[in-house]
Amino acid sequence: MHLKDLGHLSTRISNSTSTHLTAFLLTGVPGLEDFQIWISIPFSFMYLLAVIGNGLVMAVVVGDRNLHEPMYLFLAMLALNDVLLCTVTVPQMLLIFWQGPSPLTFPACLTQMFFCSCSVPL
């Protein structure tokens, strides 16, 4: 093929491949469908541990007046960031593990991506 033919081919391909995504099918861990309930146990335990531990850190920093210094406030903000990031991703993953493959709509995917991007520190 000549360069001229490749340009014509790319134009033809780009015009014929316009699609509209309505949902994504999230399947979990491919090949381990029988073990996904067992995989979900450590994830749910770690999620619960992260939320409780970071919640305690935030409660202690907010509750004690002596800890209202920049270092402790920064620690509380990191704890809040960790809770938000865990809460954005882990419940959807556990839902897939417990109920099997489920479609995720495009707006829901964009919302999840937005909150993941906003909660990751630079």
Automatic annotation (TrEMBL):
Coiled coil: none
Main localization, broad class: membrane
Keyword match Transmembrane: yes
Domain G-protein coupled receptors family 1 profile per the UniProt entry, residue ranges: 53-122
One GO MF term: olfactory receptor activity
Role of this protein: Putative odorant or sperm cell receptor.
Protein name listed in UniProt: Olfactory receptor 52d1
Organism the protein comes from: Lynx pardinus
